[in-house]
Amino acid sequence: MKVSSTRWVHLAMLIALAGVVIHVGALFAGPSWLEFFHVPPSVVASAREGTWLTPVGGLVIAGLIGTCAFYAASAVGMVRRPPLQRLGLVVMATICLVRALLLPVLAVRRPELHNTFEIVAAVVWLLAGVGFSVGFRIAKMEPNDPSRRPSLIHLPLDNVA
């Protein structure tokens, strides 16, 4: 596994972790942050009214994005291999790449998408998609034997005093 390849996967993992922080942080920061991050108006209204839609939805999305970070970490051997690792990574890569590549197509009919936030978000999604794709390739090339991969979570305890 080349270091340059793992950097892409690490980038995808960091993007996913940033997404978790943003989604959870926006819940605490309030409706103005939700508007800044272009969430649907119904979610902003839920935050203003104090209903469950915003916190539950935000935490579910943060959990899904956290799962993406975990799968990326597993591809580079930082954590134990999760179930359906390759399938998860290819699905994550596909979703990220489609999200990134849809902006130019959608922006033709929706001029409100021609803004800095949407362009930066599309570039970030593109980078994450590339990282998850590389993670899929790495996971595909690596043997399935988890003992050949280093792990930060499951360290051997023989040296513990």
Account of the protein in words:
The chain is mostly helical and 161 residues long. The chain has one domain (3-146). It is built from six helices and no strands. Helix 1 (3-29) crosses helix 6 (116-141). It is globular and about 50 Å long.
SSE map:
Elements (H helix, E strand, L loop, with lengths): L2 H27 L1 H6 L4 H9 L3 H23 L9 H25 L6 H26 L20
Helix pairs in contact: 1-4, 1-6, 4-5, 4-6, 5-6
Share in β-strands: under 5%
Number of helices: 6
The dominant shape is globular
Low-confidence stretches: 147-157
Give a quick precis of the structure:
This protein is mainly alpha-helical. The chain has six helices and no strands.
Q: What key phrases describe this protein's structure?
A:
single chain; 161 residues; mainly alpha; 72% helix; globular
